Amino acid sequence: MLAYSYIFTHEGYPCIFWQDYFNYGLAMPGTPNGIEALIRLHEQYAGGKTDILYCDNDLYIMQRTGADKQIGLVFVLNNSERWNGWEVITQWPNKEFIALAWNGRSNLPPENKWTDGNGASDFWAPPRGYSVYVPRQ
Fold first, then answer.
1. d(Cα 5, Cα 24) in Å, to the nearest integer?
2. Which range of residues forms the domain containing residue 102?
3. How far does CA 64 lie from the centroid of its chain?
4. How far is residue 128's CA from residue 136's CA, in Å, rounded to a whole number?
């Protein structure tokens, strides 16, 4: 799921393996945790260029800037064994962000976030997981 979260939030044309979606149960329809949620996010929000906001050995945070009707998103990929996050500066000042998709080694959803007047906030993802936040319209 970490790989799928990456390819569905970044630029390009993602591809899904039939067996992953249908045979291995990764579609997870009706939940924020599977491929189906990532497809929806890709189609509705993942427009514009990719800006990497933070990157180290265990944590990667980027934003898609938005284009046309796709308003953009913030993506967090966590490779550590604990919840992990970092404060970054997004392009959206004074905006609430909601997590619409996540998966990892925790059943808890990520908390909604507010950016300050400079667009700064801390964004988190579950252990060995990801979170996709979108600005509330």
1. 16
2. 2-135
3. 10
4. 26
What are 99-131's pLDDT values in tens digits?
A: 999 999 998 999 999 999 999 999 999 999 999
Please check whether residue 102 is in contact with residue 33, taking contact to mean a CB–CB distance below 8 angstroms.
yes
Tens digits of residue pLDDT in 15-72: 999 999 999 999 999 999 999 999 999 999 999 999 999 999 999 999 999 999 999 9
Its pTM stands at: 0.96
Please count the helices (runs of H) and the strands (runs of E) in the chain: 3, 8
Any idea what the CATH number is for the domain that residue 131 is in?
A: 2.60.40.1180
- CA atoms of 134 and 28, how far apart (whole Å): 20
Identity of the amino acid at 34: G
DSSP 3-state helix, strand, coil percentages of the chain (rounded to 5)?
Answer: 20, 35, 45
Task: Round to whole Å and give the CA distance between 6 and 17.
Answer: 15
* Structural domain total, the chain: 1
Report the SS3 class of residue 66. Answer: coil
**pLDDT value, residue 28:** 96
Q: How far apart are CA 112 and CA 37, in angstroms?
A: 17
